[in-house]
Design brief:
The chain is of the alpha+beta class. The protein contains 24 helices and 20 strands.
């Protein structure tokens, strides 16, 4: 009988703590589990009558990063002094981190509880036993960390060669030779349809709705199914998002895309897995590793498009169109506060759209910055897009974007070279510091200070380079082939009645990055600054519709022209003047006599021409009275020989009848007639007296 197993300790009883860290060990490694359960018989052989077995922590890690109810139960029993001995197979079974191990030893020493393992009985209240237990725990922790480090290095090295096998998504399988190959033709056809619809529709949700509407099943792979078993079911948003976001389908081998985070909760470390890392921090990324369902360039475009579709997380950036009637939804930014404008729909059928900046109103209760109807703005921007796509605009946009990209690369290269120089100076300072005699403190201190300064400068440049990559957005080069095809087909596509609003939104987003908008209340105009793709900018002004004014109301300029001409000219002459001035009706149509009559009647303007009040003649009437052409009358007006006036530019001329009888007019008419008179032919020469014959 071991002297440390006193009668008091035997009377208090013993606890056998059983743990295996992973479910695989619990299911497939039964010998270790049997050895731990055999400790119960060993405890009874040593004289303990009451023996409790704690095995709630089977399959749980002892790293201290997961909750272990069994270990907490053990510590509670020890602290209460209700146990005389703790049986375990080895120290690593109790804890694989030093904090919990030493915490248990501390309480066992205070409550005079011994720890028993196959090597012996240890009393933590004794200094030598406590030292030995501490060494056992430290050695166990070191051993596990060393094994974990070796395993991680081996995994990383194999992954860098693209040979590490892991669970593949649906559509791919591992061959016996360790290569990644596609599955059967049905799976390939279904996945190819998913990527094709993503390129066509531009949104994961739209792809989901299309597959649901058509009733097409998609392949999926469940963890509960045997390896290689492919099931089929209706499309699910989360599955489509994972499929379109996975670089495996772009032909790339990717490993280490997620990381583990450790946080302290209620004084204990807690580990959570599956946190996505930026692509620059992935452990391994090997493009063109295997045959992909799409090219890597198409995969990159899909990621950019999906990132733009995330409205709730894109903060203050421009957002992608979501298929509504508003052409510019997600592209308008307020010039006053910098926030993106919201779009709202109203009316009985939701046909009336309105843009408004209400971010500050919703968050701080401040007044709305700007608010205006979206119909005229959408039409004006659409006209600018149709004009911009023609001519040499495509070549100019591509050239400007390429120039900005070269400028961005030159800036980054300058920072890289500066960082390289700083790293060299830091290494040089380190070599100088290591070469000096340590006893020469004056020189060593100076060299150490220089080394620290060089290291600090290198760290600052590294941070500057990271900020440059994260904060500076590299300009995207527009696809020249797409733009050239748009230049040929865009007007026909745009004006087609069957063209969807989502397609128009995607076309606008190819050419326009964003629009900065403000409202000039004095001039009743909406000011738009268009930021085109490639770095060019242009300004656009659109008249703002007044309160209570219908959306297709005729402009004030056209109404003023009609007001000034009515009573003097016929409706047909007024319509011709409006057309010459390029003024349109509220619906965007040209003018005729009937439309002018309707406008006059609506605004209660005078009716047809009153001949009693009309004391002038038109240019045509003056030409008939003078017997000359209309061109000659126009010349006399331009030379200020014949006085004439116009109500508005391009309106018919008004000429006083008395001015037609002035001497200057008749003199000018005589001059015109003399110019038209044919010249007198010269006299015939007399015949020669003698002929040559």
């Amino acid at each position: 009988m071991n002297p440390k197993l006193t009668a008091e300790r035997l009377e208090r009883g013993a606890i056998v703590y059983i743990r295996q860290s992973t479910p695989g060990q619990v299911l497939h490694h039964q010998e270790g589990r049997r050895r731990q359960y055999a400790l119960e018989d060993q405890a009874r052989q040593l004289g303990f009558q009451r023996v409790s077995v704690i095995d709630e922590d089977l399959g749980r890690s002892g790293s201290g990063l997961v909750e272990r109810a069994g270990f907490q139960q053990l510590v509670g029993a020890v602290c209460a002094g209700a146990v005389g001995a703790v049986f375990c197979l080895e120290a690593s079974r109790l804890a694989r981190n030093g904090r919990e191990w030493h915490y248990l030893i501390e309480w066992c020493g205070m409550t005079e509880t011994v720890i028993v393992d196959p090597d012996g009985v240890y009393d933590p209240s004794l200094l030598n036993d406590r030292l030995l237990l501490g060494l056992k725990g430290t050695m166990s922790e070191f051993e596990m960390n060393l094994l974990r480090q070796r395993s991680s290095a081996a995994i990383r090295q194999k992954a860098q060669r693209g040979e590490l096998q892991f669970g593949l998504p649906v559509g791919y399988v591992w061959t016996a030779e360790g290569r990644i190959e596609k599955e059967d033709l049905r799976v390939q056809q279904a996945l190819a349809m998913v990527f094709s619809k993503m390129s066509e529709l531009g949104s994961v949700r739209q792809v989901l709705l299309w597959f649901r509407r058509e009733g097409i099943l998609l392949p999926m792979r469940s963890r509960d199914q045997p390896e290689g078993r492919t099931m089929w079911g209706p499309a699910v948003y989360s599955a489509l998002l994972r499929l379109l976001s996975n670089p495996i389908y772009g032909g790339a081998y990717a490993f280490g895309k997620t990381k583990t985070r450790t946080s302290v909760i209620e004084g204990r470390a807690r580990k959570t897995e599956g946190h996505k890392k930026p692509r620059a921090e992935w452990t391994v990324l090997i493009p063109d590793h295997h045959c992909g369902y799409i090219s890597w360039e198409q995969y990159e475009r899909n990621q950019t498009r999906m990132a733009a579709n995330v409205h709730m997380k894109s903060r203050m950036e421009a957002k992608a169109g979501r298929g509504g009637r508003a052409l510019l939804s997600g592209l308008l930014r307020c010039r006053r506060c910098g926030r993106m404008l919201y779009v709202s729909y109203s009316g009985s059928q939701g046909m009336v759209l309105r843009y408004q900046c209400k971010g500050a109103h919703m968050k701080q209760g401040d007044p709305r910055c700007v608010s205006f109807s979206g119909l005229r703005v959408d039409r004006a921007v659409a006209g600018e897009v149709l004009r911009a796509i023609g001519g040499n605009a495509v070549e100019a946009a591509v050239e400007a974007a390429e120039k900005m990209r070269r400028h961005w690369q030159d800036q980054r290269r300058a920072v890289e070279l500066e960082l390289e120089q700083a790293r060299y100076e830091a290494k040089l300072s380190a070599r100088r510091y290591e070469a000096v005699d340590p006893d020469n403190r004056l020189v060593a201190a100076e060299l150490e200070a220089r080394w620290n300064a060089a290291l600090k400068k290198a760290q600052e440049l590294e941070a500057r380079l990271r900020d440059f990559d994260v904060g500076t957005k590299m300009p995207a080069i527009p696809d020249k082939e797409i733009l050239l095809s748009l230049a040929q087909d865009l007007p026909a596509v745009w004006n087609s009645p069957g063209t969807e609003a989502g397609l128009k939104q995607r076309i606008v987003r190819i050419l326009v990055e964003e629009l900065v908008v403000d409202v000039d209340e004095e001039k009743k105009e909406i000011e738009l600054l268009i930021h085109w793709a490639g770095g060019r900018h242009s300004e656009l002004r659109v008249s703002k519709r007044g309160r209570g004014q219908p959306g297709q109301a005729t402009g004030m300029e056209a109404i003023e022209v009609v007001r000034r001409m009515c009573g003097k000219f016929a409706d047909g002459e007024i319509a011709a003047t409006l057309n010459r001035l390029s003024l349109r009706t509220g619906a965007g149509n040209g003018w005729n006599a009937q439309r002018v009559y309707g406008l006059r009647r609506h605004h209660e303007m005078p009716n047809e021409v009153s001949k009693a009040e009309n004391r002038t003649v038109t240019l045509q009437q003056a030409a008939a009275r003078l017997g000359v052409s209309e061109l000659n009358v126009r010349r006399m007006i331009e030379q200020k020989v014949l006085p004439a006036t116009q109500v508005v530019p391009s309106a018919p001329w008004e000429i006083p009848p008395d001015a037609l009888n002035s001497p200057a007019v008749h003199q000018a008419i005589d001059s015109f007639r003399r110019r038209r008179r044919p010249p007198t032919p010269p006299a015939e020469e007399s015949a020669p007296l003698f002929s040559e014959s």
